Fold these 2 entries.
Entry 1:
Amino acid sequence: MKKALVFFILVPIGMMISGLAYAQFARSEDAVAYRKSVMVVIAHHFGRIASVVKGDKAYEPKEVAQHADLVAVLSKLPWDAFMVPGTAGKTGMSKEALEQPDVFKTFAELLEKEAGLLSQAAAESNLQDIKVRFGSVGGSCKACHDKFRRR
Ligand code: HEC
């Protein structure tokens, strides 16, 4: 049942989203606003899982699964918006991101992969596994920020 759900619902949504993600931005400011907004929303839902992982909030499997699904779906969205010429070095993104698009893409794909695994652990209501996967997602945020985000 779960596999069927993933295949019939999430795969088409994923395909729609990857189609959308290739949409062009009319102005480079739009791309910057878009990518920052997606980051903020990812951080919000990831933070909601953080409070459970840290033990500040009781574990509600359904809620955590919803947040984890959102992180996984959102993590597929913003990458083209980072690769817009002229948008690096002025915002929170360093110039290196546009100079090393392949490295940037590797970090982006790492987050997508880890977020998928977190969402899987959450769907299985496995709190121990959720904690481990949460750590890996956080590590993938940090890896990219350390390299490509300006302070
Ligand atoms: C592949 C690289 C990459 C990954 C992975 C990544 N980020 Fe980011 N993030 C960036 C860059 C680059 C910026 C700066 C964007 C800008 O200012 O143009 C940023 C900015 C942000 C911001 C600030 C947004 C704002 O309003 O300025 C937040 C919050 C954030 N990221 C959270 C996260 C979280 C949480 C994760 C992991 C779940 C994550 N990011 C994963 C590259 C990444």
Entry 2:
Amino acid sequence: MRPSLKLAAVALLVTGFYSYFGNTIPQARWEPPKKKEISKGMSPLELASAGREIFLGRGCAVCHSINPGEERRGPNLAGVGGRKDLKYLAESLYNPSAIVVEGFPDIMPPANRPPLNLTDEEITAVVAFLQSLGGKPTVKIGDITPPVAVARREAPQMGIDKPEALMEKYACFACHKVGEKGTQVGPPLTGVGRKGQDYIRESILYPGRVVTQGYQNIMPPDLGQKMTALEFETIVRYLEGLK
Ligand code: HEC
Ligand code: HEC
């Protein structure tokens, strides 16, 4: 990716994650994004327009681009409405582990669970938006039957209160020290919180981009790809707190 695209991706990431966690992490003066009311009588086109805002503002765009050729952690969704039918689109949102697109890790959280946490109406609106990409929106509220019980995935729930266990799971301590814990192959992370959230996100997602002075760029480049969204966010918050 070109640096300008990377920057755009990081900017999107930040916006996206803010909306994921704005509700769960108390923050002074944080205002929730204005929610567009979704009502029963809305036409598929109106739903698609509401769905677009949800897609861009509530976390999907963190992992998916809708511009042809742009790569993110999940498949590019340009033209997806022309390729996939309603049933497939709904299933990809409610139960992403059921059909895992070849070449991608199974990291997408079900849209109706944290951190995405969309309502059934919001999911229908997002499906209308996806249909509009390369196709014509047809879905209306009530057309999609939400699955009764999608098996709960362990991953998105784990570790929110155990960031150190996540740091161990992804072998961060093999190269980094926090206090007395870990090994000093890379820079110690005590105090890294002072460099700010954006810097920390970038260091994990694109370790080659900003190489800390005095160190070699040996940090694995695919750590961000391996983590779930919640794991990534948990680690970022943890490091941010190391002031
Ligand atoms: C943490 C990253 C992540 C987030 C957040 C995420 N996705 Fe995904 N998504 C993926 C990955 C990776 C795949 C491919 C693996 C799979 O199929 O589960 C995927 C697959 C899909 C597919 C199937 C694409 C195809 O070509 O078959 C659709 C549709 C989709 N996502 C839509 C969404 C929407 C809409 C949202 C927001 C409600 C969302 N995703 C949020 C990572 C993510
Ligand atoms: C194989 C060793 C290795 C592993 C594993 C590793 N890192 Fe790193 N990391 C480095 C090195 C070396 C640097 C300094 C060079 C650079 O910036 O790329 C670094 C830089 C960083 C920085 C920037 C620190 C600063 O002060 O500028 C952060 C933040 C970071 N790593 C977090 C992590 C996290 C979180 C994990 C686990 C998910 C991890 N690293 C895993 C070697 C590693």
